[in-house]
Amino acid sequence: MKKLLALSVLVALVGCAEKKPLTPEEQWQGYCRSVGNAARSIMLDRQNGIEKDKAVEHADKIEDETTKGFIMTIIDDVYKMPLAEITKDVDASREEVRVKYTEKCTATPHDEMPDYKPF
Length: 119
Known about the structure:
The chain is mainly α. The protein has helices spanning 2-16, 24-47, 52-59, 65-80, 83-88, 90-106. The longest helix is centred in the first third of the chain and has 24 residues, at 24-47.
């Protein structure tokens, strides 16, 4: 019983330990995952009939220029796609756009971390 209690305390202490800070590259990877998730959400909006002007209006509220640039590019690209093409397999279309923009972001050179809220 004492061993179980000691093990429980040890597990609790390990769980409360501070996490190591992320490297700049890990931070960028996380940012790019958020950009990919935003692309997926934009595709979902497009598939659900949200008009481009509403998407642009919402994106105009983004203050960070790096993020705003990515989002505006995604909106332009997603709304150029034929609706029939993106509604054949809605899940595959969303996943495809998520992967595409995550990879595109990851390959983008960067000097500093954008100020963003995860999507």
